[in-house]
Amino acid sequence: PKSALQEWAQGQGRPLPTYKVASQTGSDHAPTFTVAVEVEGVAPLTAQGRSRQEAEKAAATAMLKREGVI
């Protein structure tokens, strides 16, 4: 999903997506990460996951769905 979002953004003439950890909740052994993904000219979106990478994938997938790419 992250590669697909990157390709879509570049195809739209936009810079690469950026990912930021908005928050981390839960215990050290079972954290939940909330990550925001931003693409210039598109409303940012957040998603959660059990790892930073999982949350980034979820955010990328959600943005691709919202923008009608998948």
What are the defining features of this structure?
36% helix, elongated, 70 residues, alpha+beta
Shape: elongated
Question: What is the first-to-last residue Cα distance?
Answer: 10 Å
Percent of residues in helical segments? 25-40%
Radius of gyration: 12 Å
Calculate the mean pLDDT score and round it.
97
Order of helices and strands: HEEEH
Largest sheet: 3 strands, antiparallel
Across the major sheet, the strand order is 1-2-3
Discrete helix count: 2
Number-wise, the strands total 3
Taken as a percent bin, the fraction of beta residues is 35-45%
The residue ranges in which pLDDT falls below 50 over 5 or more consecutive positions are none
Structural class: alpha+beta
Q: Concise description?
A:
With 70 residues, this protein is of the alpha+beta class.
Description:
The structure is a single chain. With 70 residues, the chain is α+β, with helices and mostly antiparallel strands. The protein is built from two helices and three strands. It is elongated, with a radius of gyration of 12 Å. The mean pLDDT is 97.
Give the topology, please.
Blueprint: H1 2-11, E1 18-27, E2 30-39, E3 42-49, H2 52-66
Antiparallel strand pairs: 1-2, 2-3
